[in-house]
Specification:
single chain, Alpha-D-Glucose-1,6-Bisphosphate, Chain A, domain 4, globular
Length: about 140
């Protein structure tokens, strides 16, 4: 099993960051790679579309509004992995007007090396967190 973790400082407080990213259906609000999301099964499953039109179906495994994190697994996706589980978490920063967002994942590569899938998901997480950071920089101006 391979894993990766990406963290980024965001220029606003954790509550505001969680308001934007804490909904399981909120990815299109801040992640340019995901233009649409539809909740299924009473909100426990989301069906996402990527820019290529590929379906990504994910199941909410754990949600903690108080501690600002949720964990999800992939049920269907065009990625070369199985046993994918990921957590996105908003953490406090020493400066109350800033926060740290951590996005981590573990997965088993299929027809790919650990390094290839680590690079793939590290890139997705980094690009997503950079888009989130930029969204709050625009709001702060």
């Amino acid at each position: 099993m391979a894993n990766t973790i990406v963290t980024m400082e965001i220029p606003t407080n954790p509550e505001k960051v969680w308001q934007l990213i804490g909904g399981f259906n909120s990815l299109p609000d801040w992640l340019p790679y995901i233009p649409s999301s539809e909740l299924l099964e009473g909100g426990r499953v989301r069906s996402l579309a990527n820019p290529d039109g590929d379906a990504i179906v994910e199941r909410l495994e754990e949600f903690n509004d108080k501690e600002h994190f949720y964990t999800y697994s992939i049920m269907k996706a065009p990625f070369p992995v199985t046993n994918y589980q990921s957590t996105i978490r908003v953490l406090e920063h020493s400066d109350p007007n800033r926060s740290i967002v951590e996005w981590s994942g573990s997965f088993t590569p299929v027809d790919a090396t650990d390094e290839e899938v680590i690079k793939l998901f590290s890139g997705i997480y980094s690009d997503g967190l950079e888009a989130l950071r930029q969204a709050f920089q625009v709001l702060a101006v």
